[in-house]
Amino acid sequence: MLVEQLLRPYGANKFEIVEKKGLGHPDTLCDGISDAISRSLSKYYIDHFGHILHHNVDKVLLIGGRSRPEFGGGEILRPLAIVIGGRATDDADGTKIPVNDIAKEATEKFLKKTVNNLNGHFTVEPRIGMGSTELRSLVGRVVANDTSIGLGYAPLSHLEENVTKIEPLMRSVKGVGEDVKIMGIRKGNGIQLTMASAIVSKYIEDMEQYNDTKRKVEEKVLGYVTPGWADVSAIVNNADKGEDIYLTVTGTSAEMGDDGETGRGNRPNGLITPGRPMTMEATAGKNPVSHVGKLYNIAANRMAAEIAAFDGVEEAYVYLVSRIGAPLEEPQIKSASIYGKANEKKIEAVIDYWLEHIPDITEDFVKGRL
Amino acid sequence: MLVEQLLRPYGANKFEIVEKKGLGHPDTLCDGISDAISRSLSKYYIDHFGHILHHNVDKVLLIGGRSRPEFGGGEILRPLAIVIGGRATDDADGTKIPVNDIAKEATEKFLKKTVNNLNGHFTVEPRIGMGSTELRSLVGRVVANDTSIGLGYAPLSHLEENVTKIEPLMRSVKGVGEDVKIMGIRKGNGIQLTMASAIVSKYIEDMEQYNDTKRKVEEKVLGYVTPGWADVSAIVNNADKGEDIYLTVTGTSAEMGDDGETGRGNRPNGLITPGRPMTMEATAGKNPVSHVGKLYNIAANRMAAEIAAFDGVEEAYVYLVSRIGAPLEEPQIKSASIYGKANEKKIEAVIDYWLEHIPDITEDFVKGRL
Amino acid sequence: MLVEQLLRPYGANKFEIVEKKGLGHPDTLCDGISDAISRSLSKYYIDHFGHILHHNVDKVLLIGGRSRPEFGGGEILRPLAIVIGGRATDDADGTKIPVNDIAKEATEKFLKKTVNNLNGHFTVEPRIGMGSTELRSLVGRVVANDTSIGLGYAPLSHLEENVTKIEPLMRSVKGVGEDVKIMGIRKGNGIQLTMASAIVSKYIEDMEQYNDTKRKVEEKVLGYVTPGWADVSAIVNNADKGEDIYLTVTGTSAEMGDDGETGRGNRPNGLITPGRPMTMEATAGKNPVSHVGKLYNIAANRMAAEIAAFDGVEEAYVYLVSRIGAPLEEPQIKSASIYGKANEKKIEAVIDYWLEHIPDITEDFVKGRL
Amino acid sequence: MLVEQLLRPYGANKFEIVEKKGLGHPDTLCDGISDAISRSLSKYYIDHFGHILHHNVDKVLLIGGRSRPEFGGGEILRPLAIVIGGRATDDADGTKIPVNDIAKEATEKFLKKTVNNLNGHFTVEPRIGMGSTELRSLVGRVVANDTSIGLGYAPLSHLEENVTKIEPLMRSVKGVGEDVKIMGIRKGNGIQLTMASAIVSKYIEDMEQYNDTKRKVEEKVLGYVTPGWADVSAIVNNADKGEDIYLTVTGTSAEMGDDGETGRGNRPNGLITPGRPMTMEATAGKNPVSHVGKLYNIAANRMAAEIAAFDGVEEAYVYLVSRIGAPLEEPQIKSASIYGKANEKKIEAVIDYWLEHIPDITEDFVKGRL
Q1: What's the distance, Cα to Cα, between the start and end of chain C in Å?
Q2: CATH class of C26-126
Q3: Where in chain A is the domain with CATH 3.30.300.10?
Q4: D77 touches chain B (CB under 8 A)
Q5: What kind of fold does domain C2-8+146-155+265-366 have according to CATH?
Q6: What is the DSSP string of D102-154?
Q7: Which residues of D touch A100 (CB under 8 A)?
Q8: CA–CA distance, A260 with A151 (Å, rounded to integer)
Q9: How many Cβ atoms are within 10 Å of B314's Cβ, its own excluded?
Q10: Alpha-carbon distance D293 to D286, whole Å?
Q11: To 10 degrees, what angle do helices C292-308 and C344-356 make?
């Protein structure tokens, strides 16, 4: 156990950059599909075999469609195609498991629930393979399946909190689709919010209403964040030029050629924070029993949150690195960076507690509580 | 222009984590394919139209195959499938461009050149779409096509340098395939190197020779790094257990179900460094003319290298954020973090120089000099 | 050369059955796509290499889409998917040939030209492979590439002529799509015409207009055929029941799940005639230089037509069977069945003439004159 | 009911042509897969819902692979791809049916059982869609789902019988694969048998053994047929030239680019007989409850067999044409052609009997007794 003392908290930096891809962004959709499939598979495995069998569906590719949006309507010319890579156990003690159909149904349900105006304009191509035999069963051997990094921090900075809240706020404006994106920049005590919103054509009659909708988003965002900052600018769809605007039939840019992939968007805390420690691991779609790339990242965020709640601690980062083949509770590195006064024993206790309670994370995931 | 003074250099941290996915790792292969296609398209566009037309092929999905490796031989049961998403201009002034065939050929050449024992055991499915009309031509308007983050730092830490060099070293041992992976951890002045090496079955007669090969890799790596550290451990294929070893027909785990995606592996400097500032942008496959997600990241690394070379500067980080629709040389944020003594004017001069010389980066990319 | 004397002409049979799948029927579309690709490839090969190289694209699968037709409009929910199997030379003396792009473009042009209201609602998946090396070049060796049967007859019966003419007649009624189908039955001197017509929803306001359109088709058909028969019945879309009618957005049933395949529809003379000699060969998509399955069927129809034009010959059938590896002009069987008085020498002269003039058929095909 | 008197039996013709594609021919494999899927679906529907639900999987496309056969071994470079089109009910009263997984499993089992040396070298892509709602349930309404033709005849000619028996005979020679093909030609009282046999490389050491194997096939076939004919010639793999021989790794030409499609090969009686009445209907894969295109063809063959067994009848052909929307037992045409003395009442009685016993055919199909 290593504990590093930080010399300056993150919020004291002169500048800060935070990005968030919204619920309907193609990359976020791929993450959502990966997790929906993993959750459905896990439930099926538990129902039929008593425990979760090996799977890893963290490789979803969304191939964008083609659309012809127009004020008051428009149409989809070519639907989105969802190609599902990855692996899953499809045969347990000779019993066949309809892996591809489970994946297809989970994808369909997820997209129906998540993108209001998508209306079935997508195809699903499950191409899930089978892993090597020795990986297929997880019974009684919860050891790390890879050498992976887990990482978390707490608390969110003021800007990070704002960006987190702005995302659903933008989507609550009538006519705004699920595909929004926010780039938040802080310079000193002022912030710039550059936002993109896919506007849904059927709710918008003409250019005037389109511009009204953008203005409403800006006003709502400004109304929400203004009190906290010395200076705020907020702008929506800055690339609009003449007729060339961000109008969509479905509310996601995936309808017109924007592709997505699992693991390319927000990190496990829902943000992209280039100035903070970040993991490259895709947590979405990895199985919640043995896949340290998923479990350590979720765990590290919980650990950091508890440590940051200690009296005297202002900021906490937790780093874990697994040892392939070793039990999950025995990482090859566990360390923390702290701004503030820290009792090392207490920090280690928190980390060890969560390492031993990883099965709780598994259960929370399967029950959809994450 | 904002310059931040750092209070401690990276190397003074108590611990450090660096990961590198080798040349034949499924994610690295996808990056390589994306860039090979982008380079081929760029050349074709230049040859036929005088300038590079819009394209973005940063979405490649590699679906792993199935194999039956055995000492001295083995066979591929199902080849790898390469699904190529993304967009590219396929019609310029009424002239059709064979986009999918260019992509297919570039992929085939790249894989042939990169994975020695793959022997054509793969299929290519180009599914490249066309972007919305207004994006197709780039003539005379090199403005940012998105709000993206670029980021670079210099110099590499001692561990980062070691990990960078170890990768080709491992592959130089006879019998080792292109798919290697290194996780490097530093605690104080000691390091642990956890390595994975896909061993190529046809070069290996039996278990003894397999173990010999692993030992040779460890020895070669130890021989190389030992002088610099107080304490070094190096281990290869730690998950091997009995008959269950990392033996492959082709030298890449993609042959047996390990999938890959563009943008999921190494960052633009060839490493994954969770404790350092990192970008989530996939640079591979993005067009080298207007795609800031590619250009700013390459530029920021060059800027950081020049700044770190100043007298009195020990470490430099550069951050850029583009403004969608604005010229590339006018980012909405340009800032640097410095450990050492820095003349702000000189730092800004370096950054501005490279912002104005982005076309040089484009050319270097097309000519394969990056 | 064998000549058989028939004892009764076809038209003297008590009954007769003839089927014709119209221009926009899924199977006919697949035939059309196969031939469009073969024609485009042939032109490309001639332009670039001076002669036609080996190809065979007689395996096209059309996977039907999903639609929601409604009076006055409706929409396509999932487009048709065209999967193109087969083989073609893609490398000649080291020069690469963009086979898949040629196939894609030919398919797109064909569908655009053929189905008026399809509006791009389809995807194309070219999956053309390469044949074994020795087949790739056809230079100087026009020998049969298989043991295949060619077969033709003349003249068409009265019913067959009627059915041939009815197909475009049906499609000339406003609101009728390209996907029509005719089953013609003759019992003695009376005929029953059972017809199906995909009605295009955007031209039809309500059920009344739908029924009007069906009536117009029936009237037009009856007006055309009535003079020739003692008794005629004609009915369109007999399966309509209440709201359950044959309404489509695009004018082809392929929009809602009806699949098609090359070689499953009309025979080379445009008809399905179960009581007449018929070949199972798909002529569509086969290369027009060495593929006897295509050439012998076209040739046999021409031979039969010329023989049937002899004085004293009322009906002629020609049968050819190739000998694999032998020159095209040396079939292992050439025979004819004749009703009427026939001079065997003259019959053989006609057959031999066409066997020696097969290159004319090749040229007619490439120039689109068939 | 129409009965036509034939003036000459088929066997009295001067010549005759019969073709048979063997068990492992790509087209026959597609037919087999279609029927295997239909049988599996039917069983699943019966087990779970008490009766067979709507499906039609008569559109299978086999895309050939790529191989490198060599004496004593060789390898598969790219596996066969099986694309499964068609439609099936996947939702009954809210219960989901794993249609694609059933199709995949049925395909895998069928290929494993049918092609001995295929060893899993294939991929399966189920792309089965759902039909329009009104077609999904078949409960209580066994009416014709299309206007289709059914056709059968009996008995087989002497040549037809020979060709039928030769197919398994060829495959019984060691080293011969499942993909065989026979073209049988009769001229007067002599026959020519042109045969193709895919030879399996692992059983064959060199060119001598290859030629031995061909000779054995020829001898076995000649030994079997010789007594019945005045003159017989039999030749295997006539296209062999030097090194260019018909050697395969798996025993089917599908391994090296030969594609296949359902419905393109043998007719319901297992033969292609261009000089006889033939149907173009694919019977394979069509549902065995309402799909007249399947049922009428099977029924017509049974009817013809019973009629041909009457005293005084030498040859019988039965023709049926369904009326879409009408009960299966009420075709719009039922007729027979007879050589010999026929009691029309008895003929009609046989036809009516089988029209009323179509459910027996359904059951025989599901139980695999056809």
Answers
A1: 27
A2: alpha beta
A3: 26-126
A4: yes
A5: GMP Synthetase; Chain A, domain 3 (3.30.300)
A6: HHHHHHHHHHHHH-TT-TT-EEEEE--B---HHHH--TT--B-SS--EEEEEE
A7: 100-101, 104, 126
A8: 24
A9: 16
A10: 8
A11: 140
In chain A, % of residues over pLDDT 90: 82
In chain C, where does the domain assigned CATH 3.30.300.340 lie?
Answer: 15-22+157-261
Residue C49's H or E segment, with its range, is helix C26-49
pLDDT average, residue stretch B44-72: 92
Q: Is D158 helix (H, G, I), strand (E, B) or coil?
A: helix
Fold of A15-22+157-261: GMP Synthetase; Chain A, domain 3 (3.30.300)
C78 to chain A nearest CA, in Å? 6
Take residue A190 and report the two structure tokens written for it.
Answer: 């002022």
- Cα–Cα distance for residue pair D78/D273, rounded to 1 Å: 35
- What backbone phi and psi angles, to 5 degrees, belong to C335? -150, 165
The pTM of the full predicted model, rounded to 2 decimals, is 0.88
Q: How far apart are CA A1 and CA C32, in angstroms?
A: 71
> Helix (H, G, I), strand (E, B), or coil: what is residue A219?
helix
What residue type is assigned to position A139 of the chain?
V
Chains in contact with chain D (at least 3 beta-carbon pairs closer than 8 A): A, B, C
Mutation to test the D interface, candidates C2, C16, C63, C70, most D Cβ within 10 Å: C63
Question: Measured between alpha carbons, how far is residue D163 from residues B255, D20, D169, D180, D246 in Å?
Answer: 44, 7, 10, 12, 21
Residue of C nearest to D65 (CA): C129
The β-bridge relationship of strands D2-5 and D190-200 is: unpaired
pLDDT tens-digit series, residues D211-266? 999 999 999 999 999 999 999 999 999 989 888 899 999 999 999 878 999 999 99
Model confidence band, residue A143 (pLDDT cutoffs 50, 70, 90): confident
**How many CB atoms within 10 Å of residue D135?**
18
SS3 D315: strand
Largest CA distance in chain A: 66
Q: Kindly report the average pLDDT of chain D as a whole number.
A: 92
Q: Is this complex's ipTM strictly greater than 0.90? A: yes
> Which of A326, A328, A370, A369 has its CA nearest to residue A352?
A328
CA distance, residue C77 to nearest chain A CA (Å): 6
What's the pLDDT at D140? 53
**Cβ burial B161-187 (10 Å sphere, 16+ → b, else e):** ebbbebbebbbebebbbbbbbbbbbbe
- pLDDT cut 70: percent of chain D above it: 97
Would you state the structure tokens that stand for residue D240, as one six-digit string?
């062999």
Q: Distance between alpha carbon D151 and the CA centroid of its chain, in Å?
A: 14
Distance of alpha carbon B248 from alpha carbon B231, whole angstroms:
32
Please give the pLDDT value at position C140.
52
Distance from CA of C161 to the nearest CA of B (A): 42
Quote the CA–CA distance of A361 and A367 in Å, as a whole number.
10
Q: How many angstroms separate the first and last alpha carbons of chain D?
A: 27
Mean pLDDT of A33-58: 93
Q: How far apart are CA B353 and CA B44, in angstroms?
A: 29
Average pLDDT over residues B256-260: 89
Phi-psi region of C18 (alpha: psi -120 to 50; beta: other; left: phi over 0): beta
Where do the H-state alpha helices sit in chain A?
A: 26-49, 99-114, 133-136, 158-171, 207-225, 292-308, 344-356, 358-366
The DSSP call for residue C67 is E
Q: What is the pLDDT of residues C274-314, one digit of tens each?
A: 999 999 999 999 999 888 889 999 999 999 999 999 999 99
pLDDT at D181 over 60: yes
Say yes or no for a CB contact (<8 Å) between D319 and C278: no
